[in-house]
């Protein structure tokens, strides 16, 4: 094997993860190519051998991606939908909807938010603003400048968690669902052709939510290209702004 084709969702977060993985693969002497995919294209790309490695699947939510014989492995980071408040807001460990003026939720977390609303009428009563994931930092900065006090619902990792704008609130009853696991998916039939050392190194690769948020920030806010952001991570320059 001299080449691996990496598929990933076309977001800064997934592109960053793919570039970090590519640096490991290239260090083992393999060439890498990238394929941008929508969520609906991932399974077909694996089954038709359009990609060799998918980065990444969020399990167990994405377990169906293994139905064509794909192999899940690794534990790269831990995605979680979270409640958050402005860092300056004095919120007790047991917070209430009455602490907030409105809810700001990203499109990607809207499904989880609706589940929470079905269990908490007090949340459902708050004004709701739905925004794109990329607009979250600007929206939170605006709320802070306007002395508003919104409750934020979004996924982490996210670029905003590489700033001091928000603090994550407890969700003791898992209103927004359980933590997921970001894993790689190898297409069927390719494992026997992959070098064992490479497979084991990727299996043990743990970026974590903090690094993923920093990578997302570098690409989506600073405008760094994914390859340069991955190089900064590998050289230990990414964390510690």
From TrEMBL:
Gene3D superfamilies, alphabetized: Glycine betaine-binding periplasmic protein, domain 2 (3.40.190.100), Periplasmic binding protein-like II (3.40.190.10)
Pfam family, one: OpuAC
Domain ABC-type glycine betaine transport system substrate-binding stretches: 135-233
A GO molecular-function descriptor: transmembrane transporter activity
InterPro entries: ABC_Gly_betaine_transp_sub-bd
Any one cellular-component term (Gene Ontology): ATP-binding cassette (ABC) transporter complex
Origin superkingdom: Bacteria
Descriptive protein name: ABC-type glycine betaine transport system substrate-binding domain-containing protein
